[in-house]
Amino acid sequence: MNGMEINIHYFRLINDLGKEYPALNPVSFYVAEYTVFILALSALVYWFTRKHENRIMVVCATFTFVIAELFGKVAGSLHANNQPFAELANVNQLVQKAVDNSFPSDHTILFFSFCMTYWLFRKTTGPLWMLLAVCVGLSRILVGVHYPADVIVGALISIGSALAVYIIVPRLSFVHTLLAFYEKGEQAILPTKSKTRDF
User: Fold this and answer.
1) Helix count (H) and strand count (E) of the chain?
2) Which pLDDT belongs to residue 188?
3) Residue ranges covered by each domain of the chain
4) Percent of residues, the chain, with pLDDT higher than 90
5) Taking residues 53-75, what's their average pLDDT?
6) pLDDT above 90 for 197
7) Residue 85 has pLDDT above 50, yes or no
8) Can you give the residue ranges of the Phosphatidic acid phosphatase type 2/haloperoxidase domain (predicted)?
């Protein structure tokens, strides 16, 4: 089998699970469409803990996503394929989506950018975030909007970007300077409660 045939073969193996086990469909739909709100909430919660390390982590995750998206656009210009539901018959399509280039998967890039960064900064809870990213990637295949290759390439781009950002960005003085400037303004608007001693 050539590359495209392998891609289609594994797409069928995963996507057809929804036909064999219909109970998977609502779960796949929820994970594919709504876990993005969990990711957004996680970034907000980490940010507003007002801990410096957490904020550097969110900054790195954001940098990673931007860089990975740029690499994703380059990859998309080198190779293109439409969504499986637009190219194949009898796809278990659970999400309505405009037909365009689905390579690589933007959802996968987003989740792996943040979840891989979380793992690098938080070794204990990081694997759970990566498990979420993997589930999102699989769900995009289960709902019929991406091929396995779309997901795999998106994940690899994000993982590579996250590793590079993790090594470089926390060492950049201007990042800490900008963050300190922001925190000074935040403290002026939303001062933290100072602890008082009981005498």
Assistant:
1) 9, 0
2) 86
3) 8-179
4) 86
5) 97
6) no
7) yes
8) 58-166
Residue 82, SS3 per DSSP: strand
Is the distance from CB of 32 to CB of 143 less than 8 angstroms?
yes
Residues 196, 48: Cα–Cα separation, whole Å: 22
Tokens standing for 197? Answer: 């001693």
3-state secondary structure of 101: strand
- DSSP secondary structure of 117-151: HHHHH-TTTHHHHHHHHHHHHHHHHHTTS--HHHH
Token pair for 153: 């390439």
Residue with tokens 């539901």: 85
* 52 token code pair: 């410096």
DSSP lists the bridge partners of residue 101 as 82
Q: Is 134 exposed, middle or buried (0-12, 13-18, 19+ CB in 10 A)?
A: middle
